[in-house]
Write a structure and sequence with these properties.
The chain has 7 helices and 9 strands; from the N terminus they run ββββαβαααβββαααβ. The protein is of the alpha+beta class and 243 residues long. Strands 1, 2, 3, 4, 5, 6 and 7 form a 7-stranded mixed β-sheet that branches.
């Protein structure tokens, strides 16, 4: 039995601007996105037949296809290969409904695993297109690193990697699903917008969140007194095909 394992790093939006609703129902976005070291772990085993998904000991109820299954089916269709039986296990660490792309990162890690195993010659662009059919931020989660994201989030321009620094990530005890967030934006008049171009340009010199990890650890310790879901993470560079 073949077992494959891969980390699924989360992402943060260093800057985000929602430009408006598009005719296709999506929103036009402009963001500076960064992969961070906080991650889930995705394990895949080949099985006799079928597709199953489990997370931290719990099986996902059968019925509606999960994003993971949709992505796997899309991969094998694009690869021109029959889909084998697959059992996928998710070890979750990234908080849900936090805008950190935890679910998308899991699917992206699964797609990278499938490529390594079944079609190592598949180019990044092809894998990103498979991911886009499942979710708008999937192309970035497949690529990783530091990037300017436009369109739905799928038009990516690589930016220089951040210098060594540390992030403190704090999620309150409530979540806001992405559709709910966009619904609030649609009904609001936005008068103040972030300087996305300025952020992208700043990354060609020096950008720091916390210069030293110990400073980040102290800030995280203070935040944890009020918010249990507080994490320290570091920037992660763009993925190579073997990652």
């Amino acid at each position: 039995m073949v077992e494959m394992k891969r980390n699924a790093p989360a992402k943060v939006n260093l800057a985000l601007d929602i430009l408006g609703r598009r005719g296709d129902g999506y929103h036009e976005m402009r963001m500076v996105m960064q992969t961070v070291s906080l991650c889930d772990t995705v394990t895949v085993e080949e099985t006799a037949a079928g597709f199953s998904l489990r997370t931290d000991g719990d099986f996902i109820p059968a019925g509606k296809k999960t994003l993971e299954q949709q992505a796997a089916e899309g991969f094998f269709q694009a690869a021109g290969l029959p889909m084998p039986g697959l059992a996928v296990m998710l070890e979750k660490r990234t908080p849900a409904y936090a805008g950190m792309g935890g679910g998308s990162a899991d699917v992206a890690a699964l797609l990278r695993l499938l490529r390594d195993r079944y079609r190592p010659d598949m180019e990044d662009g092809a894998l990103e297109r498979i991911g886009l059919a499942v979710g708008s931020d999937m192309p970035f989660c497949i690529r990783g690193g530091t990037a300017l994201a436009e369109g739905r989030g799928e038009v990516l321009t690589d930016l220089p990697p951040l210098p060594p620094c540390a992030f403190v990530l704090c999620k309150p005890d409530f979540g806001i699903p992405t559709p709910t967030l966009f619904a609030r934006v649609d009904g609001a008049e936005l008068t103040v917008r972030p300087d996305i171009s300025g952020m992208a340009e700043a990354l060609t010199t020096v950008f720091g969140i916390f210069r030293r990890r110990e400073e980040a650890e102290r800030a995280a310790a203070a935040l944890k007194t009020a918010y249990a879901q507080t994490y320290v993470a570091e920037p992660v560079k763009k993925f190579t095909p073997a990652e």
